[in-house]
Specification:
This protein is of the alpha/beta class. The chain is built from 9 helices and 9 strands. The longest helix has 16 residues.
C-alpha cells in the first residue's frame, strides 16, 4: 500500500442489528481530492469473525458520487441477500476511472489498484479470489476498463449502460479534458487506448466471463451492441442483456439484480 495513503477520518458506522455500513475517507498522492468510500457488509459479518466474503465494487456514473448506487437501490439489501461486501468508491465526479495523461493529479487507476484495493483487503475480511466489479455509465466504462488493466485481480466484471467506446463522445463529459485532446482525429490513439473497446484483447486473453446490459432507448445502445459483436468475434464469454430501457435510475435499479445473480453464480470455493 502506498505510504502516502491516510487510512483514517470520518468513520461513520450505522448499525441495524448486526448490519453495518461504514464510510471511509482516503487521501492519496494519486488524486487531488479525498475519496469517500461507502462499504456495506452482510448481516452475518459481525457474528462470523472467521469467515471471508466475496466482494463487489460498484462504480457510479458521470457527475455522481459514492452514494449514487444507494440512491438507486438498497445496497444493504443486496449485501444481505447475496453475502457480498459491497464497496462504493467516489469517482470524483468525472475522473473516468483511468490515469489521465493530461492531469497529473488524476491518476485514478493507480489510486484504485495501489491504495483503495489494499485498504479494503486490510480492513475487511475479503475473499480475494472472488472480487467482482461493475458500474453504470461512466462507471460501466470504468469497471470493464479496470478489469482489462488487471484481470488477475477480479473473478469477473460487468457494466450497465456503459460508455464502452469513448470515440464518438470525445468532446463530452470532460473526456477530452482528461485525455488532453483537441480534436477527434488527432486524439484517436488516446481514445482507443483508454476505451474499453480498445482494451478488449486483454479481456479476451483473461479467459474470464463478463456481463453487460443496456436499454434500447439509451444513447449508448449502439456502442454496447457493437461491443457485443466484438466479444463474439473474439469468443469472449459475454452475457449481454438488452431490452426496453433508458439511461436512468429506473433501468439501473431493475437490472443490477441480474449482475448480482451472475456474479454469485461464479463464486469459487
Amino acid at each position: 500500500m502506498n505510504k502516502q495513503l491516510i487510512l483514517n477520518t470520518f468513520l461513520i458506522i450505522l448499525f441495524f442489528g448486526v448490519k453495518a455500513q461504514k464510510q471511509h475517507v482516503l487521501t492519496s498522492e494519486y488524486i487531488a481530492k479525498n475519496d469517500t468510500l461507502w462499504v456495506f457488509t452482510p448481516s452475518d459479518y459481525n457474528v462470523q469473525p472467521e469467515k471471508t466474503y466475496p466482494l463487489i465494487y460498484l462504480l457510479h456514473g458521470w457527475s455522481g458520487n459514492y452514494h449514487q448506487w444507494n440512491d438507486i437501490t438498497d445496497c444493504q439489501k443486496y449485501a444481505d441477500r447475496y453475502g457480498f461486501i459491497i464497496v462504493c468508491p467516489d469517482g470524483l465526479y468525472d475522473s473516468w476511472y483511468f490515469n489521465s495523461p493530461a492531469i497529473k493529479e488524476s491518476q485514478f487507476s493507480d489510486f484504485f489498484f495501489y491504495d483503495l484495493m489494499p485498504f479494503i483487503a486490510s480492513t475487511y475480511r475479503v475473499d480475494a479470489k472472488n472480487a467482482f466489479i461493475t458500474g453504470l455509465s461512466m462507471g460501466g466504462h470504468g469497471a470493464l476498463y479496470l478489469f482489462a488493466q488487471k484481470p488477475e485481480l477480479f473473478r469477473s466484471a460487468g457494466s450497465l449502460s456503459g460508455v464502452l467506446n469513448l470515440t464518438d463522445w470525445w468532446d463530452t463529459y470532460a473526456i477530452n479534458t482528461y485525455l488532453g485532446i483537441k480534436n477527434k482525429e488527432s486524439g484517436l490513439d488516446q481514445l482507443r487506448k483508454f476505451s474499453v473497446k480498445g482494451n478488449i484483447n486483454s479481456i479476451a486473453l483473461s479467459g474470464k466471463e463478463i456481463i453487460f446490459s443496456c436499454g434500447s432507448s439509451d444513447q449508448f445502445f449502439g456502442i454496447n451492441n457493437d461491443f457485443k459483436q466484438k466479444c463474439d468475434d473474439l469468443k469472449i464469454h459475454a452475457t449481454y442483456i438488452s431490452g426496453p430501457g433508458a439511461h436512468d435510475y429506473t433501468y439501473w435499479k431493475s437490472n443490477i439484480g441480474y449482475q448480482f445473480i451472475f456474479f454469485s453464480e461464479r463464486i469459487i470455493p
